[in-house]
Description:
Elements: H1 25-35, E1 40-43, H2 50-63, E2 67-72, H3 83-98, H4 104-113, H5 118-130, E3 138-143, H6 154-167, E4 178-184, H7 188-191, E5 204-205, H8 213-219, H9 228-242, H10 246-257, H11 265-277, H12 280-283, H13 285-296, H14 300-312, E6 315-316, H15 322-330, E7 333-336, E8 339-342, H16 345-350, H17 353-359, H18 362-398, H19 423-429, E9 433-436, E10 445-448, H20 462-475, H21 489-492
Helix pairs in contact: 1-2, 4-5, 8-9, 9-10, 9-11, 14-15
Amino acid sequence: MTSTTKFYVTGGTMLLDAQSYIKRQADDELYHALKQGEYCYILDSSQMGKSSLVIRVMERLKQEGIKVIDFSLQPLGTTGVTLDNWYGSLLTKIDTQLELPTSALSFWDTQRQQNLTPTYCWDQVVRQIILGHGAQPIVFFLDEIGIVQTLPAFTDDFLLSLREFYNARTTHSEFRRLTFCLIGTATPASLIKDRHLPPFNVGKRIVLADFTETEVTSSLAGGLQQQATVAITLLQRVWYWTNGHPYLTQRLCEAVANDPAVITAEGVDKICQALFLASGRNKEGNLGQVEKWIKDYPDSAALLELYRQIRKQQVPDDDTQEKINALRLTGIITVRDNALWVRNRIYSQVFNKKWINDNMPDAAKAEYRRGLMEASVVATVIIGLIGGGIYWYLDWYVLKHVTYCNAYAKRFGIMQCVGELSTAQAHGREVSYKFIRKGRKNPVWKVQAVKGLTELVTRQENGEFTKRLLESLQKNSEVAFTYPGNFNPATTF
């Protein structure tokens, strides 16, 4: 297969005719929501197929006669961006794509010369220029919206203006023709930098799920050039490792396709080991990016500790928690049944317990060790209390209310009896244990000394009874003891 007809795509936006594109529920969900005029946002981790999905939805909307504006913040960069070149770039894109009779950029310049605020000028561009001509619906896509987190504060006013446009629908019907869709790697709460301002909380969230096993096996076999049964076996193993993560799935499929000799699941395992598990964080961009996201987070220790907990036990999802949202954006975890899970086996093995400890900041490591020591002390106390409680229970309840009618010697001194002990008998039992050992290598046994079928040995009688017991055991004669199973006391002591 030549590079021009490459089946699998492992970087960048997939072209409209890409053979390995897998349509998901989100494709139709976003299309129908925007067509109905709903504000939407796709805010997810990188390499989840956001841009590839969006260009397909754009194409479908255009075919319905809906005007589309596609504005990506990526070309703006993250340094040297001023208010004027921000709006200049935005309005130039609007002029190019909408082909308006009046230039939006020229109108902006005229308004700004009147010493009006930038937010007011932008509002007037939307009202008079964008919505002032024609009656067609307009969908405005803002891609790579996460970049606003690194830009100056004027982007806060821009995002707040979008919410004002949404609220204006109740009094100005023309705003119902304008819809915005935000795409990027961010959370709604992180888009507005000024914490004194309300967060951007307008729109429908579109969730990008990982591919199912059925989607992978039914859509990606064409690139393997293997018999159908072999291709399905290989793709099932690919899914086993990636759990349907879009990039990892395409990347592993590509590596498998490049080695026609791989025809078994074990062969896929070897490729996965070499590609991701051996030194993936250093060579594989996706894994390195996940690690960088976590290490660059201001409170990386808290993020690592949360990830540690998710690896240990089920943690409920809560999209109001900043740390959970931040960890989700790294792509290392996913949500299933309202709980957080490590996203796939590749991530689980690469970002393992050792990796957590190696990347935990020194101060956090010390705090973690102190926490372990404190927990150990508490656990010791609790175990002691529980152990004491169990001993009390056995000593003063169980063994007080069972009999010694068929008492027998057993490892660790646990009796089996029938009936009930009297108070005097229970008191006598306190001094009736003896350790009996014959031969250095033989096990120690605890024996409950029994005087008869109704009486326990008292403190004074215990020594003499034990002496006679040992003599009886050595002769293998019958005494008032029953031994478990086929146990033979004569050969043990």
